[in-house]
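Q: I'm writing up a methods section and want to include an example of the input and output format. Could you take the sequence below and give the corresponding predicted structure tokens, formatted cleanly so I can copy it straight into the document?
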Amino acid sequence: MSVPLLTITASNKNRLKLDELASQWFIKSIQWQDCKDFELLIADGGSDNYEEIKEYFESHDGPIKMSIVKHEIGDVFLRATLNNVGIRNSRTDYIMTTDVDMLFARGFVNTLVGLVKPNCLVESRTMYLKQGVMKEIYAGIGGNPYENVECLKRGRIKKRTTAGGCQCLHKDSWEKIRGFDESYYGWGSEDYDLYARVSRQRWKIKWMGESREAIELFHQHHHHPNLKEELKHQSGNKKRLATIGKRELNPDGWGGVKDEELK
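A: Here is the clean output for your methods example:
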């Protein structure tokens, strides 16, 4: 069996829950892709339901292979670290990082693989869906996104400056740039840090979803039970963002792999 072209890796810590509709739609939108030349890898930080997800993925018979890898991170969600875990455990030529609360139009992967090439970062603008829109979709009264993605397009499109809801590079480019900067705590700014470092390499950057008509990546509305703490982390991350180029990146290794283990 040939190796797929692309891995979509999504970071997770206690957010991917098989009995919740947001997770079900995330998985459904992976499985319904028109392009099948990819696989899904969840980079898990030690979720309470890790074994349940693992068993479900191993027994799932959909067209897209799904797997999960665990890297314990403690209580705080470390998006940069888990993104890197997914990258380093992928076996494909191209690797795209994203989150488990996304929903993909059925043509998303097809559009993505038409843009990828070495030394080129592919990003996508993201539409943030309103809670009411998702309730209608979940209830089956808001339209069917598989048949007509236009029924989802009732939200705001995230600005370019926040670097998009996905990041895709060739595996060699990920290695050269040493993935995401794992000194970012929680989540926030780690994606723009990557964008800025790629820009400094003078690699090409291509954007998907630059208009409402072209948007194919959607963020499902969800609550943040620890929002105050998350915002505190974001504040510190923004200060760290201002020091790009003034510190050594992931000096001991990245993605759970120490540099000396590669020698």
